[in-house]
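Narrative of accomplishments. A recurring question from our advisory board has been how the design workflow behaves on a single, concrete structure rather than in aggregate. To address it, we present the structure tokens for one chain from the evaluation set, followed by the sequence designed for it. No filtering or post-editing was applied between the two.
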């Protein structure tokens, strides 16, 4: 019966928390993985889990991380 069905879902949201402290976060606020040079995270795993549509938020985070990568690489945007 449908009412006997238990449904469980997981999400990658929040699995790479952003923050300044490597003890409580996987990346810094620019998406750079603590302690691993040249490795960035730019996806939904930066966002804490929630119940709202996050497409625009994830796109904005990815753009911010991409701009930080360009700065780190010395790109001038031209």
């Amino acid at each position: 019966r449908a009412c006997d069905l238990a449904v469980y879902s997981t999400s990658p949201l929040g699995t790479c928390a952003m923050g300044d402290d490597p003890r409580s976060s996987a990346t810094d606020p620019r998406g750079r993985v603590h302690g691993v040079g040249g490795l960035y995270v730019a996806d939904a795993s930066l966002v804490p889990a929630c119940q709202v549509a996050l497409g625009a938020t994830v796109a904005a985070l990815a753009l911010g991380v991409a701009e930080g990568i360009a700065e780190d690489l010395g790109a001038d945007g031209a």
